[in-house]
Amino acid sequence: FFETKFPNFFRVIPSEAEKDLVLVVRAVKNEFVAKRISRISSNEMHLQLLRGGVEGMVPFGEILEVQIKHKDAKA
After folding, report:
1. How confident is the model over 19-35, as pLDDT tens digits?
2. What is the DSSP string of 21-75?
3. From CA 66, how far away is CA 62, in angstroms rounded?
4. What is the pLDDT of residue 37?
5. Sheet containing 44-49: which strands, arranged edge to edge?
6. Could you give the C-alpha distances from 17 to 7, 8, 9, 22, in angstroms and in order?
């Protein structure tokens, strides 16, 4: 699903159209705001987070909602 619906978020360097967009993943325990999807497997995905550039892991079973937003958009 993520490979087909969000292919531009797998790029190391985003295109001009996506450079100001973030992927907001709401999970059971956390909300992740990510610049890109760094790795993906059959059970989970790893996100390069907007703040700090660290990586966050989200199991697919815990994902409640996924949105694309401008990085400066308010909640």
Report:
1. 889 999 999 999 999 99
2. EEEEEEESS-EEEEEEEEEE-SSEEEEEETTTT-EEEEEGGGEEEEEEEETT---
3. 11
4. 92
5. 55-59, 44-49, 31-40, 21-27, 63-70
6. 13, 10, 11, 12
Please compute Rg for the chain using Cα positions.
Answer: 11
For 19, the token pair is: 């450079």
Predicted confidence (pLDDT) at residue 75 exceeds the cutoff of 70: no
Tokens describing residue 14 = 């985003």
Q: Which of 15, 23, 19, 30 is nearest to 48 (CA)?
A: 23
Pairing of strands 21-27, 63-70: antiparallel
Residues found in the chain = 75
Q: What is the pLDDT of residue 51?
A: 85
